[in-house]
Amino acid sequence: MDSSTLVDLCISDENEESEANDVKKGAKHKAKKHKNVGNRSSNALESRKCKSDVTDQEDSRVDESSLSSASRLSPPPLCRQFWKAGNYEIGLSKASIQNGKNHLRVHPMFLHSNATSHKWAFGAIAELLDNAIDEIQNGATFVVVDKIFNPRDGNPALLIQDDGGGMDPEIIRQCMSFGFSDKKSKSAIGQYGNGFKTSSMRLGADVIVFSRHNKRKLTQSVGLLSYTFLRQTCHDRIVVPVVDYEFNTSTKTLEPLLSHGKENFSINLSMLLQWSPYSTEENLMKQFDEIGTHGTRVIIYNLWLNDDGNMELDFDSDLEDIIIGEAQKLFESSRLSKQITHHHIAYAYQYSLRAYLSILYLRLPQNFRIVLRGKVVEHHNYANDLKFPEFILYRPGGNMEAAIITTIGFLKEAPYVNVHGFNVYHRNRLILPFWRVVKNVGDSCARGVVGLLEANFVEPTHNKQDFEKTSLFQKLEARLKEMTLEYWDFHCGLIGYNQKKHNPPVPVPPQQSLLLDSCLEESALRNHCSTNIDSISHVSARRPEKSTDYEQIEPQQVFGVKRKSRTDANDVQHKPSDQPASGIGNQWQDEETMNLVQENKKLRAQLLELENSEKQLDLKVKQLKGELEDVQHEYKRLLAESEAINMIKEEKT
User: Fold this and answer.
1) What's the pLDDT score for residue 182?
2) Torsion 198-204-429-181 (CA) sign
3) What's this model's pTM, rounded to 2 decimal places?
4) What b/e string do you get for 57-74 counting C-beta neighbours within 10 Å, with b at 16 or more?
5) Are 41 and 1 in contact (CB under 8 A)?
6) Are residues 350 and 332 in contact, defined by beta-carbon separation less than 8 angstroms?
7) Sign of CA dihedral 637, 640, 646, 649
8) Is-contact 146 119, C-beta < 8 A?
9) What's the burial of 604, exposed, middle or buried (CB within 10 Å: 0-12/13-18/19+)?
């Protein structure tokens, strides 16, 4: 073993120096017996103060004996198939106890078991893109997903890169650790501080991260999370080599940031050069040329294979896409191909990354792009594909503050496609794509009925592929099922089926158009629908049942029929034929209706306020950009002046 400083990830800075010296002695002793091992068995890691929320991790010293015993074990074979890669044992290590207190060690097997939360490879890629989307607030304008090659072996690797604010030395260590998250914004997608680890390890055995941060001072960091390294060196804990560089304003060069000593830096660097795709420091630093002034570059290599021994991510079938080959073959060979083309997005998203990314986010800023293999992904708002749309106000638990508008309608291809379900988003991120709330139904029931909503009142699971099964979620599922069946019963005749239920429309006073306008504007704000408000001028409002968790907005001109409301014993069905003219005016005196009108006035006021805020922010951004350009020009001028002065000084000397 190399004579190196071995520092555990979860050790406080104050004990770092003494601990490093203890381990260093053990390392030197081991090096005398195993000179040919070199750096491969080193257990180095750049350390920061531990803030893990798993347990209280007190100061402790690395156990020499456990490191020595790890070196004696023969490296287990590394299986390249993800679902089999966790089947190995390297022996149990003793828990480290110092001063009567336990010290937590995270075993490398946890990297694999933690990643199994992602059953689907695209779900793991989405987690990595979420980090880039969260960087929009720090100026990110793009995220790139592409295939590159590992220079060591020529095998494909997955690249994900953004031009966000980047990570400073402290943040990159939090990123590589477990349970850290400083995303406090309500709009942030990431919450748990676990997504990077689970997603990267689900896609490949190893990941290297390059990040350049240029806020208060320019720093750049490189970190390596390598399952291969930990397996081959038989480690009984997770260690992550990290090196940092800082821009020296005096010399105008990037220099190593030696926060924990020169030797510690050298050991971490040697591990990076041995186990990463880049064998020299020069090649390692060239990766920052691709980043620019700020941003993050993630490279996942040693990608997993499927059960057939082929790459799980297929880069060759479509040079502008990334395909999950097994899923595509499943759809092409199934009976679904006889009913619909497997290229329909409702099925294509399961095997085509381009299709999935097009619907992954409900809203994207106009200046932000997702670039997949050199081509921009077109954002696809599914609400724009609906014919005969209907908008229903849903109030979870009767709470108007959390009210959302659910859009429901027929696919434009209906009835020729056998698709139905809801795209359910949370904080702008798709959690459940085409969620089938109606199951085991016959007679083509619900065929072609799809919907869209943003449910921020329920919490997603850690892999962001489902929601926690709370009572609120169960109520939402029941209500969406009712919406689907009701919509089908009253409107299936519009796509050629025998209509089951009819109910004449109720005339609506012209002043009620205010209600529709505000509701539809709110719907557009939430779902970016492109519905032409001017073409819809009528609304039906009805008394809800006891739970009072929804109101319906129906475009009468489009449908020509009105859905029958669910009523209790006191409800009255109004029909134009037997309702006097004066009764129409009395109808809108209903207390519930007036409440709805008032709520929609509030929504309109909120919308206007948001629009004004957006305009003010746009002006501020333009102002700041102008100031930034002025500063840059001044900087260039001063730099040129400084260079001229230096030249004059050199000539004089």
Assistant:
1) 55
2) positive
3) 0.69
4) bbbbbbbbebbbbbbeee
5) yes
6) no
7) negative
8) no
9) middle
